[in-house]
Amino acid sequence: MTIFDELSDDEFLFTRFERNCERFPEQTAVIYLGEKFSFAQLKEMMDRFATAVHDLGLRINDRVILYAPNCIQWMAAYFGLQKIGAVPVPVSPIYTAFEVEYMAQHSGAKAIICQDTNFGYVKQLLPQTDIETIIVLNLADMLPRWKKAIGYLFDRVPTGKVAPADHVHRFPDLMRRYPPTPPAVQLNPRQQLAYILYTGGTTGFPKGVPGTHTGMVSFLNDVARLYADCIRPAEDVFLLVNPLFHIMANGMFLALGLNAACATVLMPQPHVDAALAAIQQHRATTFLGVPALYRMILENDRLDTYDLSSLRLCWSGGDTLPQAVFRRWQEKFGVQIFQVYGSTEVGFVSMSPPDKEPSPRTIGAILPSRRFRIVDPETLQDIPDGETGELLITSDHILTEYWRNPEETARSFLQLNGEIWYRTGDYVQLRGDEVGFVERSDDLIKYKGYRVSASEIEAALQDHTAVIGACVVGVPDERVGERIKALVILREDARGVGSADLTNWCRKRLAPYKVPHYIEFRDMLPKSKVGKLLRREVRDEEKRRQDKGKAG
Questions:
Q1: CB distance 253 to 220 below 8 Å
Q2: CA pair distance 344, 365, nearest whole angstrom
Q3: Alpha-carbon torsion 534, 211, 286, 137, what sign?
Q4: 3-state secondary structure of 421
């Protein structure tokens, strides 16, 4: 019997973790800022935290904002809240007071866990919310005293001022004050919320996405079964640089750390050199990144000074992976990059099968716990295999509504043949037993009747050695519908590369109707809090420019 033989969808996230704590109590669960925490230690922290917050008044279904970067306290709080039936609401640590205030109000949060550097923001939003309890942490809280002292001495530990008050509690104080004996609560994994995650907010205010334990465990089991012959339980080391408040990083951490009892090297910030040093130091074998991170690693001037020979499995998600990056990574390290595709609303949807060479042109095979349809976005009729249509996803395990948002629910979830389906807004094609990603529907450019993929053009531009970033949008044109405009960021050392060079480059790689009509050079591109390219902002900018020109 292997560690994967006891998989069941009807489990809580924390009980799966606890089972590995019983099997591998002394095994390293997390390596954080160079310090190793065993499964037994992390479980004790989780139980102490659960006991503490229950004593502070939190109960079943109470929402708690988790406003902190990747850290060991984040993990203890996430599981500890779930154990007493409270609902973690993870948000980005770089959100402003205005953004967190909206999420706190919308979720109805009663407490917030924040890094001390964000305490000032929390004080600002407190009067406008129902938050009664604040728990404050510092990134170095759980490190040995000598290590903290060195960090403070060399000003390596960011700190913020925290005003003492009866409703303000320090994380380490709770760890000292409370025993690891949380109360037993009656919960149902199919009904109990495991989290509320907020979308990136590219269409106005963020939408709250509630998820049950069963909803998440179902796709974690899919991942475990798909990679059962590749993942080495209690042996592999997973380097995690992506933020835990995002479904992709959260899911992969739980799949490898929780399901497979692998050690997770947890990084508070995604610094390239720090990540490369961590791979070398801890002999990391598995890695998750977004395309931009893979490109940054490949273009790092000090790359050859690091030993990355321990890497075995790499995954990419969150955006289209350029063919050149995929190829260069494989040539450099002899390791393929597998694809991960999903959304906050439905969790993981598809992954590259490990028994065949992955392709950056597909998003992999749909996971068994998810069902899909590819339809005409206007008629919602199924389309023939090989043609492009919108991807719809459903599952017996997911919730089919946004938190307290019936209008957005009606726009994104629809009923077909007695089932409720989520409209991903992504255009795809069925290619054999895998799904090929074409474009996000909002970002398709309509030129002379053609539907042009912005991401395809961006990928072509980014394959040029002088280009480190590109954003492609459609500019309204009465004669042809939209003309194609590309905003490009060049490498600092790029010399003699102009728009004509890049146009010629695209002509060699794209059909004539896909070649950009305009190329503009920029120093930066607009991105969301989770690093997604905001083409909509560029389109709005172009529209304002056109309107101003007409008015003049």
A1: no
A2: 18
A3: positive
A4: strand
Please report the domains of the chain, with CATH numbers, ordered by start residue.
13-269 (3.40.50.980), 313-439 (2.30.38.10), 448-551 (3.30.300.30)
- Tokens 């080391």 map to which residue? 237
- Alpha carbon distance 467, 464 (integer Å): 6
pLDDT tens digits for range 6-46: 678 889 999 889 999 999 999 999 999 999 999 999 999 99
pLDDT digits (tens, 9 = 90+) for 484-532: 999 999 998 888 999 999 999 999 888 788 899 999 999 999 887 667 7
279: which residues sit within 8 A by CB, 6+ positions away? 239, 287, 306, 308, 310, 311
Q: Which amino acid is at 463?
A: D
Paired tokens of 399: 């919730």
Structure token pair of residue 437: 């990603």
Q: Nearest CA to 279 among 287, 291, 271, 290?
A: 287
The SS3 of residue 381 is: coil
Give the closest residue to 241 by CA, choosing from 163, 297, 177.
297
Q: 405-438: per-residue pLDDT in tens?
A: 998 899 899 999 899 999 998 889 999 899 998 7
Q: DSSP labels for 204-225?
A: SS--EEEEEHHHHHHHHHHHHH
Other beta carbons less than 10 A from residue 97's beta carbon: 17
pTM, two decimals, is: 0.85
Q: Please list, in sequence order, all residues whose beta carbon lies within 8 angstroms of the beta carbon of residue 167, skipping any fewer than 6 positions away.
A: 132, 133, 134
For the record, the structure tokens of 144 come out as: 């040995």
Q: Which helix (H) or strand (E) holds 318?
A: none
Q: DSSP string spanning 495-508?
A: -S--HHHHHHHHHT
List of E strands, 458-502: 467-477, 481-490
> In this structure, are residues 403 and 89 in contact, taking their beta carbons and an 8 Å threshold?
no
DSSP for 126-164 reads: GGGS---EEEEE-TTTTS-HHHHHHHHHTT-S-------
Q: Which of 138, 240, 185 is nearest to 14 (CA)?
A: 185
Q: 10 Å Cβ neighbour count for 472? A: 27
Strand (E) or helix (H) holding 446: strand 444-447
55: which residues sit within 8 A by CB, 6+ positions away?
Answer: 178
Strand partners, 483: 475
DSSP 491: -
Tokens representing 188 are: 């149902």
Q: How many other C-beta atoms are found inside a 10 Å radius of the C-beta of residue 491?
A: 14
- Cα separation, 309 vs 330, whole angstroms: 12
How many other CB atoms are there within 10 angstroms of residue 547's CB atom? 10
Q: In sequence order, which residues have a C-beta less than 8 Å from that of residue 474 and are 6 or more positions away?
A: 445, 446, 447, 452, 454, 481, 482, 483, 484, 485, 539
Decide if 98 contacts 146 (C-beta within 8 A): no
Cα 367–Cα 371–Cα 375 angle in degrees, nearest 5: 125
Give the residues across from 67 on adjacent strands.
91, 114
Question: What is the C-alpha separation between 357 and 362, in angstroms, rounded?
Answer: 11
The answer to whether 162 and 138 are in contact (CB under 8 A) is no
The secondary structure element, H or E, covering residue 551 is helix 535-551
